[in-house]
Amino acid sequence: MPRLVGKQSHTGENIAALLILAAIAGITLEYIGAVNAVPGFGRDERYSPLQSRVVEEHAIAHSNR
Q1: Residues of the chain predicted below pLDDT 70
Q2: Distances (CA, A) of 33 to 2, 5, 10, 49, 56
Q3: Which residues are CB-contacts of 47 (< 8 A; sequence separation ≥ 6)?
Q4: Which residues 6+ apart lie within 8 Å of 64 measured at CB?
């Protein structure tokens, strides 16, 4: 295999990109409530796909009274 003389490695750029992606993932998990590392940040409750359906059914039940 030939030596790549004069080629610089991109290790620093790769590490920076990895750290940015990890920070974005951490902030996203904190915001949606999967992690609670910062009190008072993000949603008050965890999101559940069934949550919106329950709220809609509750609203429909109360509107039919």
Answers
A1: 1-3, 43-65
A2: 51, 49, 35, 14, 22
A3: 32, 33
A4: none
